[in-house]
Design a protein that fits this description.
- There is one protein chain.
- With 188 residues, the protein is α+β, with helices and mostly antiparallel strands.
- Helix content is 26%, strand content 42%.
- It is built from four helices and six strands, in the order H-H-E-E-E-H-E-E-H-E.
- The longest helix is centred in the N-terminal third of the chain and has 26 residues.
- The radius of gyration is 24 Å and the shape is flat.
Length: 188
Amino acid sequence: MYRNIGWAWPLVFALVGPALAADAKDKDKDAKDSKFVPIGQLVGRVAAVQGSQKTFTLKVSTSILEPYRAGYRIGLRVRQISHDVEVKAADDITVRVANPPLDYDDKGKPKKYTAKELKDLKGPGNQWGFPSDFESLKGDQIVKVFLGRKKDAPKAPPKGKDKEKAMEFLEESKPVVTQVWILAELKK
């Protein structure tokens, strides 16, 4: 039975292949329009925000397995390690929040949005969350940060012992935050 439909696979690939290639071209076009190359993501808690300099400090926790000895047995336990990471925001940073902005009706009660209003608030495209601005970033928020490096940043450090050029290289190749998703706000 499989021998009879074996000839159909090249036909399926011939019909579906161009559609998949068109999607890949659209993604490549979007990537070419960006000034940054994505290099990673961080999830953490905002510790401090310096709005005038567009920098903020993230408290990022990582889990490690640590062996321990209990009598004649050896076991493993999980230990949390926290790091403070200082990051700088790009000039055209995108900030998005999980919930739509609060709006109140005539009686002062929170307004419930319709599906059409939520779609309009979300903005064009199929992006996560609702648009916001850098000023909505505050301490004690759980955020997901997308890091990027400038496309025209130098790839390799300069040769020689010129410290000024080396410091310039470090400053130019430093990753910046291109997008922030505010996932939740911790209650005090």
